[in-house]
């Protein structure tokens, strides 16, 4: 495992979930809709926001900015803000030793998101609970650690994570190309195994087709020695099948060679090239989460397979397109088009659900309403 150059504590937590929140000080209840909470812009806005402490001894002025952050920050939220099982979750780092001690002891167990939003006055009911306002255009400012938050146990610290294996751990990997051991990130080692497995799968497919081609050659030879109209027709059918199989076998061999080459390239990359490869994969997974869904698991998939999932969701191939005709060039072109289309759609509708905004469209600030004012069940 890579040795960390710090002793900061890392945690995973539930930031929020869709539902109705009670604001007794405002004499109303407000709905946080699923469409707004899990909107891509909402998730992006919470990336890297400060973690602050709020309790009886630590009251803060509300909005955290470049003028007052030094007084209040005890940590920071990570970049992987995502939806998991109907909840908005993320990892976060705590810099302050005393704060992490209080979290570990259970004293600070709940979380509260500080945000700006545009309230839409609209009566309704969600899961049997009535509300008078819908929160839209949610944008994060910070996340507070508190003994008792407004959302209760629906927004809480889940677990400490810094004792787990670092995903960027370096492992020794023996390359097939030169027989030498190379130090590479464990995630890259996993990718190499995926590529090699794909190569073996395609090689086996090519072998099976070659075996069938030999059988067809024997059948054609046998039928050619016979005479008759029926034999001639069967020979023509077999020849067509023979040519098709030859083409498929050749394609499988070419793809197998390509996968083998990719695996060998990964095995012998220079440190700066490895860093680039890891960053490119991280970006690809981020794109996949944004387009396919946060709950999608991309572990164990090659980059090409992840791109195929994105394509299938955003811009599928024509229905009459044969899978064996999808080359790397075709895939890259379709993937680029899928990303452009998704970006265009996100730009066209950046504000989540299409509810009508309040007349003055004034932003409301939920920046210091962290602690529960009523009875908590």
TrEMBL record:
<dbReference type="Pfam" id="PF09979">
    <property type="entry name" value="DUF2213"/>
</dbReference>
<feature type="region of interest" description="Disordered">
    <location>
        <begin position="347"/>
        <end position="377"/>
    </location>
</feature>
<feature type="compositionally biased region" description="Basic and acidic residues">
    <location>
        <begin position="355"/>
        <end position="377"/>
    </location>
</feature>
<keyword id="KW-0175">Coiled coil</keyword>
<feature type="coiled-coil region">
    <location>
        <begin position="192"/>
        <end position="269"/>
    </location>
</feature>
<dbReference type="InterPro" id="IPR016913">
    <property type="entry name" value="UCP029215"/>
</dbReference>
<protein>
    <submittedName>
        <fullName>PF09979 family protein</fullName>
    </submittedName>
</protein>
């Amino acid at each position: 495992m890579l040795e960390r150059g710090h002793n900061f504590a890392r945690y995973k937590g539930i930031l929020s979930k869709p539902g109705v929140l009670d604001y007794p000080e405002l004499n109303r209840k407000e709905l946080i809709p699923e469409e707004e909470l899990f909107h891509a812009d909402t998730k992006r806005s919470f990336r890297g926001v400060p973690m602050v402490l709020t309790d009886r001894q630590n009251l803060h002025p509300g909005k955290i900015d470049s003028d007052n952050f030094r007084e209040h920050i005890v940590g920071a939220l990570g970049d992987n803000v995502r939806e998991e099982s109907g909840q908005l979750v993320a990892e976060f780092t705590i810099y302050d030793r005393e704060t992490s001690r209080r979290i570990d002891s259970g004293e600070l167990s709940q979380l509260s998101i500080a945000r700006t939003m545009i309230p839409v006055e609209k009566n309704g009911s969600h899961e049997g609970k009535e509300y008078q306002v819908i929160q839209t255009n949610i944008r994060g400012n910070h996340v507070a650690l508190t003994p008792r938050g407004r959302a209760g146990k629906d927004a809480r610290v889940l677990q400490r994570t810094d004792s787990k294996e670092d995903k960027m751990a370096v492992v020794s990997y023996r390359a097939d190309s030169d027989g030498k051991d190379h130090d590479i990130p464990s995630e890259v080692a996993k990718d190499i195994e995926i590529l090699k497995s794909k190569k073996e799968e395609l090689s086996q497919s090519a072998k099976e087709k070659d075996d069938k081609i030999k059988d067809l050659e024997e059948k054609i030879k046998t039928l050619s020695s016979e005479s008759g109209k029926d034999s001639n027709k069967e020979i023509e059918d077999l020849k067509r099948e023979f040519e098709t199989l030859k083409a498929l076998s050749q394609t499988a061999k070419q793809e197998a060679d390509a996968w083998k080459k990719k695996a060998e390239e990964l095995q012998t990359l220079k440190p700066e090239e490895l860093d680039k490869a890891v960053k490119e994969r991280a970006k690809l997974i981020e794109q996949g989460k944004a387009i396919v869904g946060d709950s999608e698991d991309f572990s164990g998939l090659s980059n090409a397979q992840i791109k195929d999932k994105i394509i299938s969701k955003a811009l599928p191939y024509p229905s009459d397109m044969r899978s064996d005709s999808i080359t790397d060039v075709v895939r890259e072109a379709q993937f680029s088009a899928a990303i452009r289309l998704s970006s265009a759609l996100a730009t066209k509708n950046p504000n989540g659900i299409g509810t009508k905004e309040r007349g003055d469209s004034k932003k409301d600030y939920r920046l210091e309403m962290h602690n529960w004012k009523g009875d908590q069940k």
